[in-house]
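Annex B. Sample input.
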Amino acid sequence: MKKVWTIFLSIGTSIIGLISFFWGSKYVVPDLTQVEYGFPLVWGTNVVNSIAGPVDLWYINFNSLVIDLIFWFAVVIIVTSLSLYRE
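Annex B, continued. Sample output.
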């Protein structure tokens, strides 16, 4: 029964990590509309609208992307290890 708990905990943590990785927050001011992706670090920015009109520009910060991936993989590994250690 404890192994089933570990599996559910690992899957739940992985889903939370994926949701936070692809989480988008919209930033709107009169001359700019952009969507920023990533949590806890913003790794991607999609500029949707600017003063020049509709645009589709992407800015990717690869350092933040790698740090985000390492962070969420570490969270999943630590939670799984702790749940296995508790058995």
